[in-house]
Amino acid sequence: MPQYWLFKTEPDEYSIDDLAREGECLWEGIRNYQARNRLRDEVEVGDLVFIYHSSCAVPAVVGLAEVTATGCVDDAQFNAQSPYYDSKSTREAPRWVTVRVRYREHLPNAITLKDIKSRKSFTDMELVTRARLSIQHVSQKEADELLKQGK
DNA sequence: GCCAACGTTGGC
DNA sequence: GCCAACGTTGGC
């Protein structure tokens, strides 16, 4: 059984439309250990990912993607020009690993953070209880409800 | 732009 | 290993 996740992204930086255009991308720039640990240890090929737009006018779950590869080194950590540069990471022991995702679909009805906060079925979502974590687990029940609301 | 909540760093 | 100081996230 594939698991469900929710990945946050700032649409000004990289939006679901960018992902749709590219088809597939490396989910780079995660620089938080809990999020990294999930990407490294828990996320599996075939898992489904809700794409969430944060730090924007209407924060919302906007679409779906699927994981196509795991254990990918995030090369931005070695690039001194990148905002994601990490001077303490080495090629021998890269600190930041991530996954690749493939675009699946936009949800016709984006589910806003406001919706999520106001609906009982979503009150246990990590979006509510652990708002800052950028790689969030979504239960089967929450996923079913998100898909129902989103169509 | 503010600020609450949370994550990280570094001195001890 | 504690914790104060500091930095970042992200909704509003």
Summary tags:
151 residues; alpha+beta; ph1033 like fold; 6-stranded mixed sheet; DNA-binding
- Termini Cα gap: 22 Å
- Report the order of strands and helices: EHEHEEEHHEH
Helix percent band? 10-25%
User: Which fold name corresponds to the CATH topology?
Assistant: ph1033 like fold
What is the topology, as strand order, of the major beta sheet?
A: 2-5-4-3-1-6
Major beta sheet summary: 6 strands, mixed
CATH architecture title: Roll
Radius of gyration, Cα only, in angstroms?
15 Å
Number of domains: 1
Give the DSSP E fraction (strand runs of 2 or more residues): 25-35%
- Number of distinct beta strands: 6
- The geometry reads as globular
CATH 4th-level superfamily: ph1033 like domains
Low-pLDDT regions = none
Structural class: alpha+beta
Number of helices: 5
Query: Oligomerization state of this entry?
Result: single chain
Mean pLDDT: 95
How would you portray this structure in words?
By secondary structure, the chain is of the alpha+beta class. It has one domain: ph1033 like fold (Roll), CATH 3.10.590. Helix content is 25%, strand content 32%. It is built from 5 helices and 6 strands. It has helices spanning 16-22, 33-41, 113-118, 126-129, 140-150, and strands spanning 4-9, 24-26, 48-53, 60-73, 97-112, 135-138. It has a 6-stranded mixed beta sheet with strand order 2-5-4-3-1-6. The longest helix has 11 residues, at 140-150. The chain is globular. The protein binds a DNA duplex (12 and 12 nucleotides) through loops.
